[in-house]
Amino acid sequence: MKRAADALVDTLVLHGVDRVFCVPGESYLAVLDALHDCDDIQVVSCRHEGGAGFMAVADAKLTGAPGIALVSRGPGACNAAIAVHTAEQDAVPLVLFIGQVPRADLGRGAFQEVDYKITFGDMAKHVDEVHDPKNLAKVVAQAFQIAQEGTPGPVVVVLPEDMLTDPAEDTGVSPMALEKPKATDAQVKAVAAAVGRATRPVLIAGGMLRAPSARAALLACSEAWSLPVAASFKNQDIFPNEHDHFAAHLGYGVPASIRETLQDADLIVAVGTRLGDVTTQGYLLPEAPQPKQPLIHVYPDGEHLDHVFETAQAVCADAEDFIERLAAITPPQAPQGRGDWLKRLRDANRKMAEWKPWSAPDGVNFGHVIAAFRNQLKDDAVITMDAGNFNSWVHRYFPFKPTQVLLGAVSGAMGLGVPSAVAAALRHPDRQVVTVCGDGGTLMTGNELATAVQYGAKVRIFVSNNKSYGTIRLHQEKSFPGRIEGTDLVNPDFAKWAESFGAKGLRIDRAEDADDVLKQALAHDGPVVIDVSASLEHISAYTNLNSLKPGKAQ
Ligand SMILES: Cc1ncc(C[n+]2csc(CCOP(=O)(O)OP(=O)(O)O)c2C)c(N)n1
Q: What percent of the chain has pLDDT over 70?
């Protein structure tokens, strides 16, 4: 006799799931029991549900398919909430399974009982609590469908523990058809005509062009149409950064010169992005609600079109299909001035990205670590990042190739760095996987180093150890100069900390050692943590503490 839990696992297999991330709980023992007999799915048991959830989000970004996390009720679910939020903000398909109290106890305030429809109602696309075991497999298949259609995102499936052991009529349910809206030929032609007429167009490319085939189509489209491309927040890797058509990565800290140049565009074509506040540089690119130039917005979910911005052409369509079809049209002769426009953008971007070794008075300028990355990372390396100011060095000085992968959180969640690296190293054991983290973020989810050791994930974790929640320190210096509160940190020696997990620990105490230490880290056959004595004075790639002192010119 099949139990509901077996039907759930059969359905996962039918959906091609080969790995799930979990922290076990007594509330879903039957699912673990069903997984015990399943050779197709690896169970990666993590040290915190935030870590498990982040790994599932990262895995989804890497595969394009929903990431799967399993967590226990109440406390486990609360710990996993950060991943649900990140999946929503990053538009990543995630299916989160949560154990639940037995059906008879629901509504009685039972041990660890939570109403997940209320708790996750604001973050998840859909929350379903399954009471009839015969429905479970279908609900799981629907969860996969909902997580992927339109704007991808998180779906929560709640599993009362007694339901899981009841007999299920169904075994697994196969994947349901996914609706991919397509632009009409007339819509593609209208966009082509607008791009062909524009002197200063810019294409803002979003995460829905993350798949390798979409990256190739984007490059082909940009080259065919002489279209400069700006990557949306945290999607810097989808277009070759050293290409003449690369205009910018629209993250934090974009210099005013680049932003102002982009604002001079006479047409914005946004494809596969929701145009959030970071990508639009605070709703200025385009300007909300009335853009200064015509806005063409292509996105597969009508809810995000013509809503914040007045849109000249709103096209509800799959981003990759749209870009492929635009690339296939033969463009007219580009208007005079297009070449100058491309050069203006290219020059501004190259000036910003030019690395000049730079020494700090109080530690290692983190740019030296990134310079070592430039020298040694292979064309298919995966770089993951936590949230914090150390990221500015990566975004500014690492020229991504579209064969490389950048995993970061649009949600700005600290804690993604180490777990995402573990997920990447498991998914791509033959590729170099490095992560950059702050000392703050490392100790939020760095315990997943134990998961890396347990499952043999070859992660290289670079800790920018500036003894500060630096990002917030920078905000303090700007808003409340000299009044430092709550941002100083006292840290362990991260190299010794690593060794205590059974990983290798290395240190970068001098900028000139960065290349050699990276070489050692990449050569090691196992997880490595590199404690970088990072300068606090050089708090970001765009500014330093001294220049923020009152009276100093910015
Ligand atoms: C989970 C979470 N908590 C708090 C914040 C707010 N926050 C953003 S950056 C930051 C400091 C990051 O410090 P660290 O990891 O040391 O990196 P640094 O900024 O010093 O480079 C904080 C606390 C956040 N984004 N995410």
A: 99
Cα separation, 176 vs 77, in Å, equals 27
CA distances from 341 to 132, 142, 326, 413 (A): 61, 47, 21, 36
Lining ligand 1 with CB less than 6 A are: 386-390, 412-415, 438-441, 464, 466, 468-472
Residue range 14-43: mean pLDDT, rounded: 98
Q: Whose CA is nearest to atom 4 of ligand 1?
A: 414
Per-residue pLDDT tens digits for 287-312:
999 999 999 999 999 999 999 999 99
Which residue among 48, 462, 469 has the greatest number of ligand 1 atoms within 8 angstroms of its CB, and so is best to mutate?
Answer: 469
Write the burial class of residue 542 (CB in 10 Å: 0-12 exposed, 13-18 middle, 19+ buried). middle
What digits encode the pLDDT tens for the residues 173-205?
999 999 999 999 999 999 999 999 999 999 999
Q: Answer yes or no: are the C-beta atoms of 82 and 387 closer than 8 Å.
A: no
Q: Which residue reads 């998180």 in tokens?
A: 154
pLDDT of residue 428: 98
CA of 311 to the centre of ligand 1 (A): 35
CA–CA gap between residue 353 and residue 230 (Å, rounded): 14
> How does DSSP classify residue 468?
B
| Ligand 1 centre distance from Cα of residue 527 (Å) | 24
